[in-house]
Inverse folding.
């Protein structure tokens, strides 16, 4: 949700701001802008457009801030684009000032005029009014912090200065150090071309960056504790693929191996390298899994496996509901929070709720050192690498890999499966799954053929039973988010209780059916829609030939291999369909990758 960048140093700031903003576009791409000591330049639309506007710029100003927006308050327009300037203050903001209307009314009585519809301009005006009164920017920011309700990461410039001031609350912000000066950004991926040395700001801290140094205010430490990012420039390149999403789909067998390798010892799950003691899971009576979107979908598959292998009651919650409609608390409940970005506001808020209510919390996070990872009692990192495409693929499957391993660890601790079977399943996860993924990737031509079949349809349906239904939820989300086909997921038996009325000639109905016991039932449901005109597609690891109009036969001998293979095929189907429809695959309409507002 909005990307922020800033630079002060010895070199011209504009080109650096543009480089950083391009890397931050995944956080929002409605509009963008940069401010230097000399001028503000804004554009409606992508950073490439802003780059064109600045191509012949002779602005050599060595300080500047930039922003790429995911609109919340106010339409997508140049006026609402950041940076905003009022009086001597120019700023960019990520987050939402919830009490902006009250502050606006107060400032209007003082004669302040606003040109945008944003909460950000109000924040800018408030800081400016405090600054005008005291002449002390740090005091002005401190005073404003006390007034703001909501979330924020601000980068602030004061007229005539070469400094950048920054503060954050609930929205992420890092500063970074290089030979040519100091940077700030919403996350490190924006700064990899310049430096890897960074400091993640704590909530409430105020930082002043000048070309030669950093000052901290409201902080427990006097100088930043620098860390070194493990990202590399290669992580952020397309490496010859047409889209980041395709690259990330193809990386999955490798990143799953990376994620699992240190957590398997003597062919058994072992989370000791994550700091989890051998009896960490032993007294767990119940599990809550909390996440949003695909992360929540991964949680559902995790639930299926945990209940099947370890017999522990597991409930999955949409994070935005968890703290407002909480379940009745029971003792010995483990809350598992899943987040690729580690910054999703709803998931973070649920984590805070769980901690306040005395739950034991464990997070599964991809981006290192992020809010959810830091705030939870324990964290298991997935090693998916940087995920740049807005629609998650490798982020999701590495979450699935960890959840599968947790399910096996739980079954080991509770002896719900014989030791040899746990070993066999662990081996299938580590050795079989990556191979099955590679095999599924080689079916791309068949999937292209299917994409041709569905590309012109307005609606599609995914159906399945049990864990296959949970996979359908992810397949359906992938299809709608990147191809804009209105796709719905249904438990296979449920379609006939109303929704079947939407089936018309050639409506695609995609069934995932890997469970031998449930297979005949799902196939019957497929035949019900076929006889009403649907174009039926069956994704299955079972050996069948004529149960649907088109069959994707997965080469996946076990349940775990089938889970991952099914997902690869629906990811590819969404990708190929979106490609044929001419969609902006890596940056789908209205979306942003890191959702840092509630
Ligand atoms: C869909 C997608 C989203 C995210 C969700 C949670 O492709 O990427 O549904 O899964 O916004 O994001 P994280 O995992 O960063 O908390």
């Amino acid at each position: 949700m909005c990307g922020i960048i800033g630079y002060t140093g010895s070199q011209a700031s504009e080109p650096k701001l543009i480089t950083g903003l391009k890397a931050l576009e995944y956080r929002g791409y409605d509009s963008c802008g940069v401010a230097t000591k000399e001028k503000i330049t804004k554009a409606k639309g992508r950073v490439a457009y802003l780059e064109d506007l600045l191509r012949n710029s002779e602005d050599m100003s060595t300080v500047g801030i930039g922003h790429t927006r995911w609109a919340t308050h106010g339409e997508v327009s140049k006026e609402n684009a950041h940076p905003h300037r009022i009086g001597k203050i120019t700023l960019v903001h990520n987050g939402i000032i919830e009490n902006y209307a009250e502050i606006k009314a107060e400032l209007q009585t003082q004669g302040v005029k606003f040109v945008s519809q944003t909460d950000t301009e109000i924040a800018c005006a408030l800081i400016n009014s405090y600054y005008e009164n005291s002449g002390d920017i740090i005091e002005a920011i401190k005073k404003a912090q006390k007034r703001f309700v909501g979330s924020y990461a601000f980068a602030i410039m004061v007229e005539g200065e070469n400094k950048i001031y920054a503060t954050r609350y609930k929205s992420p912000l890092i500063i970074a150090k290089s030979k040519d000066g100091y940077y700030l950004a919403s996350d490190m991926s924006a700064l990899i071309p310049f430096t890897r040395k960074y400091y993640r700001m704590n909530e409430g801290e105020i930082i002043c960056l000048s070309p030669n140094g950093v000052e901290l205010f409201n902080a427990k430490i006097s100088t930043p504790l620098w860390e070194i990012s493990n990202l590399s420039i290669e992580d952020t390149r397309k490496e010859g693929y047409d889209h980041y999403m395709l690259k990330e789909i193809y990386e999955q067998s490798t990143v799953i191996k990376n994620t699992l390798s240190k957590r398997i010892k003597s062919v058994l799950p072992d989370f000791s390298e994550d700091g989890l003691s051998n009896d960490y899971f032993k007294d767990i009576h119940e599990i809550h899994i909390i996440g949003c979107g695909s992360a929540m979908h991964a949680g559902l598959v995790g639930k299926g496996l945990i209940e099947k292998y370890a017999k522990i009651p597991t409930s999955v919650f949409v994070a935005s509901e968890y703290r407002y409609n909480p379940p009745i608390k029971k003792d010995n409940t483990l809350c598992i929070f899943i987040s690729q970005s580690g910054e999703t506001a709803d998931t973070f808020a649920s984590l805070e709720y769980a901690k306040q209510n005395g739950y034991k919390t464990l997070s599964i996070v991809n981006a290192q050192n992020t809010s959810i990872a830091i705030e939870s009692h324990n964290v298991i990192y997935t090693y998916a690498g940087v995920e740049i495409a807005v629609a998650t693929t490798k982020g999701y499957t590495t979450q699935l890999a960890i959840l599968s391993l947790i399910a096996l660890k739980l079954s080991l601790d509770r002896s719900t499966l014989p030791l040899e079977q746990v070993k066999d399943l662990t081996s299938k996860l580590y050795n079989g799954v990556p191979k099955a993924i590679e095999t599924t990737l080689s079916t791309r031509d068949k999937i292209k053929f299917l994409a041709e079949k569905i590309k012109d349809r307005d609606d599609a349906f995914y159906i399945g039973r049990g864990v296959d239904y949970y996979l359908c939820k992810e397949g359906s989300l992938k299809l709608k988010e990147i191809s804009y086909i209105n796709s719905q997921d249904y438990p296979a038996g449920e379609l006939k209780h109303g929704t079947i009325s939407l089936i018309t000639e050639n409506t695609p109905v995609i069934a995932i059916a890997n469970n031998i016991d449930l297979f005949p039932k799902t196939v019957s449901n497929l035949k019900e829609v076929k006889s009403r005109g649907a174009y039926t597609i069956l994704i299955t690891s079972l050996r069948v030939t004529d149960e649907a109009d088109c069959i994707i036969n997965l080469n996946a001998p076990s349940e775990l291999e089938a889970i991952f293979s099914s997902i690869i095929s629906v990811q590819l189907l969404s990708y190929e369909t979106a490609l044929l429809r001419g969609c902006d695959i890596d940056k789908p309409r209205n979306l942003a990758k890191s959702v840092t507002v509630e």
The mean pLDDT is 95. The first strand starts at residue 3 and ends at 9. The chain has three domains: 3-234, 237-441, 444-584. The domain at 444-584 is CATH 3.40.50.10490 (Rossmann fold).
